[in-house]
Design a protein that fits this description.
252 residues; TIM Barrel; single chain; 12 helices; eight-stranded parallel β-barrel; alpha/beta
Length: 252
């Protein structure tokens, strides 16, 4: 076990920043590592990563003291356990919309006596004779609030112990509200804002997507965990370069 930089920030009352993008390889993480993010988002719901690469990606995160935060594709105990066994330090479970579904995540993510995660040590236990005693405290568990049903059931979900972050995801939430592809629609943002307020008021940790349109406001609401995506930075940099190049070329 190597600790968990995102959990450490949360427990200290600070804001944690997780970065992700179109590529989730060890090389990508080695490049991003020196930039100072607290965690790296490994995309297992929509991305192409296979189980045989998860260990290498998680190890690269360890080298840079970043939490390896992997989104899986379903709320299934076997999938949750297998992903954790491969060595990631954080887990993101999508489409959790009821208190019972949240309890299912919490139980599958923790060893007894607080959970029902299957007993298997995996690479994080190597050389650590106290792995099973420590593991529960070093695993980050995030559930995604992606549907109006989840917003309606939020109070029941917030009563579930063992969930570290309730992450309000505007993209899928917009879809269930009838605004496909419109995560910044005023009605969607209103629901996101109210959900974050409720999470914080309950004394739980709220998370959300971070960008220049929402970051300041959501930090002001008390959210503590943010995902930002580096793909727009590449597009912005590429456009700036090509615009400059074409302007120089036009002068010649």
């Amino acid at each position: 076990m190597r600790g968990n930089s995102v959990l450490e920030k949360i427990r200290a009352g600070k804001v944690a920043h997780i970065v992700g993008g179109h590529s989730y390889t060890a090389d990508t993480i080695d490049f991003m590592g020196p930039l100072g993010f607290d965690g790296f988002w490994i995309e297992g719901e929509h991305g192409s990563i296979s189980f045989d690469r998860v260990g290498d990606v998680a190890r690269a995160c360890d080298l840079w003291n970043m939490a390896s935060v992997m989104r899986i594709h379903a709320n299934e105990p076997g999938l949750i356990g297998r992903t954790l066994d491969l060595g990631v330090s954080g887990l993101v479970v999508p489409h959790v919309s009821t208190g019972e579904e949240a309890r299912k995540v919490a139980e599958a993510s923790r060893f007894a006596p607080v959970g029902l995660r299957g007993i298997y040590a995996g690479r994080r236990s190597y050389g650590d004779t106290h792995f099973f005693e420590k593991a529960n405290d070093e695993i980050l568990v995030i559930v995604l609030i992606e549907e109006l049903e989840a917003v309606r059931n939020l109070d029941y979900m917030l009563a579930v112990e063992g969930i570290d972050v309730f992450f309000v995801a505007p993209g899928d939430l917009a879809q269930t509200m009838g605004y496909v592809g419109q995560m910044y629609h005023p009605e969607v943002q209103h629901v996101v804002t109210e959900a974050i307020k409720r999470i914080v008021a309950a004394g739980r940790t709220a998370g959300s997507l971070a960008n220049e349109k929402t970051l300041e406001a959501h930090i002001g609401l008390g959210a503590k965990v943010f995902l930002t995506v580096y793909d727009p930075w590449i597009k912005t940099g590429a456009k700036a370069y090509l615009d400059m190049a074409r302007e120089i070329e036009s002068k010649g």
